[in-house]
Amino acid sequence: MSDLCGNPAAEAGEALIPRKRKFDRSKICVKCKTNPGNLVIRHSVYCRDCFTSLITAKFRQALEPHINHASTGPRRGALNPSGGLLVAFSGGSGSSVLLDLVHRTYCTNVGSDELKGGREHPRKDRVWKRIHVCYVETSDVFPETSDRTARMREAVARYEGCEFIPLRVQDAFDRSWWERVSGDLSVLPVDLCRGEPVPIDALKAHLRALPTATAVLYTLSTLTRLLLLYTAYSIGASHLVLGTSLTSLSISLISSISQGGGFVVPQAIQEEWIPPFIKRIPGATSWSGEVRLIRPLRDVGMKECTAWVWWHQLWVVGKQRIPISEKTIGKITNDFIIGLERDYLSTVSTVVKTVGKLAPKGKPGLRCVLCELPTQQSAQGWKARTSIHAFEDAASPEDVPTPLLAFLCYPCHTTLTSKSSRSSKSRNLKSSSPTSEPSSTLNLPTWGAARLACGIGDEESTSSSANEIWVTKKLDTDLMKSLVGEFMLDER
Amino acid sequence: MVDLKLKIEFGGGLELLFSNRRTHFVDIPSTKQQGDREGEPVDMDFLIHWLRSNSLKERPELFVENETLRPGILVLVNDIDWELEGEGDYRLKDGDEIVFISTLHGG
User: Fold this and answer.
1) Is residue B42 in some structural domain?
2) Which residue of B has its CA nearest to A90?
3) Domain A39-110+121-279+286-356 sits in which CATH superfamily?
4) N or C terminus: fewer CB in 10 A for chain B?
5) Where on the tree of life does the source sit, at the highest rank (chain B) (predicted)?
6) B58-85: pLDDT as tens digits
7) Mind telling me how many Å the CA of B4 is from chain A's nearest CA?
């Protein structure tokens, strides 16, 4: 009897599923089929030489079809960008690899005899006449961190022909920076009551008003993105490239969606941006100052980036650890995805491919005054109906939504108002209208303040609601009863 | 008992956990000294625990997790991905060069 009813697993010890091999077939390179492999990339084995050509090919495949203003295919000889190139540089491995690849592909090999074609062949021309590298320093926000601008300058100086542009994140609140990048096209209002705020103080006040650590990092990321975009516009760059790897992209997509950014998923992968003060002519085929934000390493995982850094002996300054980052949605998502990737090698690739198929429902409305990404029409109405309110908040007259809310996208609104253990102490979002009381205003970055001052109209929007302002109000009980009275069941 | 001489390199910020030195030359025993597998040749799993016990100076959770190497660390054994060499089961040889690089140092 005991033989029949026994527990075979318990008797034989713990039953373990044998660990699956992480590579297919043999240890020989799948590409050249002669050399022994050095690296496993999602089940495939590559030798060092083939690895280098594989990453270069992936980089070019992701970038070159988007270089011409009107796409003409991936042929290099036909590459003719409308403006310059701005490389976003954070000092991390992704942006270091990106800068190295840009330099190898578009600076070092230019005119090389190894390239096919005669001496005058267009393939041997420089694709980019000017390459700038921009770094945004955030150390003024976090006193525990050190200023690394000098180290970034040193890292960029190793690449001949690249011009370094240092920025500080508080430039987003700096009138002089805004005047430099926008020219005379968009004028900031002068606040005679409060005078000109010091940029870093304005930034710190903005960040202090945010309810969570996640909101602070989201805001810094948004400010950095727009600083880069406006800088690209101001120097005449038609392309802005970011060193977001496949791994980083999958983490940021999941993190963004969890913070309400589902509507702008396409822009999270690739974006075509133009300052709101530039009139875009519908149907125009010529370049009118648009900046194309591209992530050329979106098919290259962090493991490959690390291997590239090691084998090509790149000097990586490294990312600075931000003290508050440990308790954010981004960090939790990062740990989850990286942990999953260990056992399921295609996790990040699956995430990016699946998210890449998503299309937001409905037409975009105005661009958000904070992040300048499209807002979802009627998102505020939807949010007002589904938000959970605590009783004390509901009773507060201060919670009435204000006109600014109509010009914020869902994630920016959530960033400014999301509840947390700290949020009861923090202020609710009040009007940032230039006419509101100074004590109740939220410091806006220069681009947001300029748009509010010049009128909120969005040149791109064709929506009939572009000039409408939606305001939701809490109804009193009697009015509510009168509205739903005819649907109520008789108590008898 | 013969010791194995190994060259260990750290990168991607991991060196900060190991006295801020990128290169370490270590001598480790050639066979396991205790436990169920006493007398067996040492492998990568043994090296990881040996490094944690003997060389790691701070924040062990950034190097080891659940008794194995933390996810997000690329390991090269003599310039070859350790996934090709059996990961933790790779049997160490005298003169091996092992590289640990954190892949999580930013984009």
Assistant:
1) yes
2) B107
3) HUPs (3.40.50.620)
4) N
5) Eukaryota
6) 888 889 988 889 888 999 999 999 999 9
7) 24
